[in-house]
Fold:
Amino acid sequence: MKKTIFLTAFGLTLGAIPASAATLTSGHVDFIGIGYHDGELEPHSHAEAGAVVDGVPLTADTEYELGELTVQTFTTTTRPLDIAWAPIGVESGESFWLFSPTDIPGQPYIGIGAEELVPGDWTGLTVTLTGMTGPAGGHFSLWQEDAGVPTFFMSTLGGITSADAYTFADLNVKDHAHFGWGFTEEGIYNLTFEISGTHAVDGAKTATATYSFVIPEPSSALLGAFGAFALLRRRRN
Structure:
């Protein structure tokens, strides 16, 4: 059984991530990619050619199993004044960390992709947030924006409930969606999602997956501490 472990140093809480995980810092990625094989949903990640992983651009589209890829942002923005933005978890005018909902060169462009599923086979395909570990006081939120008006699908402000979910509206065509991903504190966030839907032949299917987000680059001292901790864990195992 896996356990979530925290390391606290220099006032930050560093959640455990796989020591061998690669880090994407730029380019397009279906970070929550959804496949289906042998009667089971298969969450994974799929990065497009040109995305920068561990400082090197990918020369071809690349698929990663769970735990093999993290994403990292260096971008901050300020919360708009409108109360509709309150689910982000900071006051209006305060800054927070952002994975942008638009494709900006040099930044990660994170999507949820169901393009590997066969069109017409699925109904009610939903990604639900079920858990989070991260820095003390940190909040995560997920939204889409239309003409400056946000629609929030997930927010940890006030706790996590079954309402923290995104459902694909139409899987009669291959589907793909992008969002704003907001984080209020520096550190590493491990977000756990339940992916569920009904297959036309195989019936109801569910899978659970945890994805790690680095907000922003940890200091060299913090990375050193985490490296020592990871080494200790490997020795104990």
